[in-house]
Amino acid sequence: MKYLILGNGPAGVIAAETLRRADPSGQILLVGSESEPPYSRMAIPYLLEGNIDESGTYLRKTPKHFDKLGITQRVGRVVEVDAEKHSVSFEDGSRESYDRLLIATGSHPVRPAIPGIELPQVRTCWTLEDARAIAALAKKGSRVVQLGAGFIGCIIMQALAERGVKLTVVEMGDRMVPRMMTPTAGKMIRKWVEQKGISVRTEAGVQHIATGKDSPLQVKLSTGESLPCDLLIVAAGVAPNTDFLKGTAVEIGKGVRVDVHMRSSSPDIYAAGDVAEAPDMFTGTPQVAAIQPNAADQARVAALNMAGQNATLPGVLAINVLETLGLISSSFGQWWGTEQKDGVEHLEKDRFRYLSLQFDGDVLIGATSIGLTQHVGVLRGLIQNRTKLGRWKSILKESPLRFPEAYVACSQQPTALHR
Can you tell me the distance from the alpha carbon of 1 to that of 307, in angstroms, rounded to the nearest whole number? Predict the structure, then answer.
């Protein structure tokens, strides 16, 4: 059996290792599009902060790790998949056959169609090559504009702040981290970072980028403001890498549509990670959940099924944990709630503490927190296990911070008295 894995990020690496355990004699080929060893993009901010060197981003630190497992590696950029012939074509004209194919090609940063975005001082922060360019431009005191204050944007922002730059963040949404945080939470994060010396512009976009008279770049915003800077970082979101699948039988939505076994609509083709669109845990609707824990779970399930076993993923659960200049925030599940808006909020503005709980009947389906570091994982457990809260729902609506007690009463000790 020949297994071909396109993508050597976390999903591809974990899938390859899982396949080797499940099929000790199978042929495994792991293909990456960069010449670097398999590495974690999420470690790049730590590299920019100076906490690690480039080898610290590598997913596996042991020399010849993949050789020892009998996993063959090659560099290649896929351009076409022939599902009928079970073969893949690469940019250099070469081809590879397969018996089972895993698409783990991840995603790429979105580059909005803004005049001037191709200037050399405009960078994304996605690859080690990007990191090297940013490190050369983002010196202490450098003026940096960052487009985007989403999850990835906030991680980059943390690294830039550590480098001592003068940073302005521009976000089109009405708050920071709009696809992860409630309005109250997003505005709290903005207040926090502004107190740390970072300028934030919300409900604003970049309209034009040009070479400045007294600065490398002049960035014009939709608000009419013009910002001189030495570096512009684009962190405007990511999109799954699926272009090479056009014209195939593989169903594409936002990503590669898969079932609970991580199988695509085409025989012998599976997908995992940022490129996969899997059923949501609560609604069953297809969802791309571009987070590393999700990629790992999907990779294991896909690999086991590729090897002939029967494994399922109960559904995608949105999980986001973020540190922003020392402020911890998190969101789990359907944090925005339902149309019925059955939820509760707890707010301590001066202490930067916040909790939002969202219910569907007596089941907790989503949560958002800021400044809470103890027992937050309990919220994920309650949501993921679809725990029926019973009388504890009314208790939580009166006292949201009692969620650890609710977990113990409803999950660990089902017969415990509900106070």
Answer: 9
